[in-house]
Specification:
With 361 residues, the protein is mostly beta strands. The chain is built from one helix and 28 strands. The chain is 1% helix and 49% strand.
């Protein structure tokens, strides 16, 4: 169903106000045999400094930005935090271990000298000082045990995080480590931690299972967390839920996977009436769709791909939506206008290796 999505927009990028103006996209790229990164100028024609052998990160890496630096979480079997400095040609400032087999998934910052790292394969959350030098002395400042909120296997499968006020919120997938496909063992939850004392305060039970998405931390909007829950892949049992931080309760799905027509693997909020999501559809395909969270209906399909090739979508402060397309032929970035879904790139932006994750700085 194609409609004029622009009519539903008010205040695109409002959540980004107060931050330095973004000028570039940093894109982690990967063939899953090798990993690198590319840098894209946001000003058309969007020139690219492509992936190269000199720009090495792990083949399975996710990226975040904070205070002018790029933080690369090199995941399972690399298990470290790599800090890159854009002002110094993306030189690696430090690369500190999070523990063998720990599988770091996200980093949430209190300041440049204090942050938290979620460890997917561990029961304890790391407290770190990401400002340490190359020797990594004093990198690990402490740990917070989240086993009390885990499923029966004792591992809570912690993933995306967000710091809001004096609280840290950590999404827990609660997957069965003993199942071959690591299926959900029950509904997901959100751990709540006091960042002044580093004490676990409790948990918020979610309405669905497997809180998972390629978001850059948990999505925070107007005093609430918005959390995608994929449930069991291939079954329409999930959706996107709003968690009110005033009362600490999950309010049920704002929009369900049945409404969207597939498993939700990523989403961005543009306004109260407009959002975008990547959905994995039955029949081994996925699509970028826009939807109205209030009316719970899909507005338009903006791009489709055979196979599950669409992985990450990100909104910049210019009102542009970047899509990571990992198609076997023609992999690269696609750019859309967030207010109306208009295609802003005549052809895909080639990065040498397929794009995996996008951040702006």
């Amino acid at each position: 169903q194609q409609v004029a999505v622009g009519e539903l927009v008010s205040g695109v990028g409002s959540a980004l106000q107060g931050c330095p103006a973004q000028t570039h996209a940093f894109v982690a790229t990967s063939s899953f045999a090798e990993g690198s990164f590319a840098v894209v100028d946001l000003t058309p024609p969007r020139p690219v400094t492509p992936s190269s052998p000199q720009r090495r990160i792990y083949r399975d890496a996710v990226v975040r930005t904070f205070d002018g630096l790029v933080y690369v979480l090199n995941r399972l079997f690399a298990d470290n935090l790599q800090v890159l400095d854009p002002a110094d040609g993306f030189r690696t400032r430090s690369q500190c271990s999070t523990g063998n087999g720990s599988n770091p998934h996200d980093i949430a910052f209190v300041s440049r000298r204090k942050a938290y790292i979620s460890l997917f394969e561990e029961a304890a959350l790391l407290i770190v000082d990401p400002s340490v030098g190359g020797a990594c002395d004093g990198f690990v400042r402490g740990r917070i045990d989240l086993a009390a909120l885990a499923d029966a296997d004792g591992i809570p499968d912690m993933d995306q995080m967000a710091v809001v006020g004096d609280r840290l919120y950590v999404a827990l997938q609660r997957l069965d480590i003993n199942s071959i496909l690591r299926l959900p063992a029950g509904n997901g939850a959100v751990a709540v931690i006091d960042i002044t004392t580093d004490r676990l305060l409790g948990g918020i039970e979610l309405s669905g299972a497997n809180p998972f998405a390629a978001t850059k931390g948990l999505t925070v909007r107007e005093g609430a967390l918005w959390i995608a829950q994929a449930g069991e892949f291939g079954v329409f049992d999930g959706g996107i839920e709003r968690v009110d931080l005033t009362d600490g309760r999950a309010g049920g799905f704002v929009v369900s996977e049945a409404d969207l027509g597939g498993d939700v693997t990523d989403f961005v909020l543009v306004s109260d009436r407009l959002a975008y999501a990547i959905v994995n559809r039955p029949g081994f395909s996925n699509a970028l769709v826009s939807f109205d969270p209030i009316e719970r209906r899909v507005l338009a399909t903006h791009h489709e791909s055979p196979g599950y090739n669409l992985f990450d979508i990100e909104l910049n402060d210019r009102g542009e939506l970047f899509l990571a397309d990992r198609a076997r032929r023609g992999a690269g970035l696609r750019v859309f206008g967030a207010t109306d879904g208009a295609v802003l790139t005549e052809r895909v932006i080639d990065l040498a290796l397929p794009p995996f994750e996008i951040v702006f700085f």
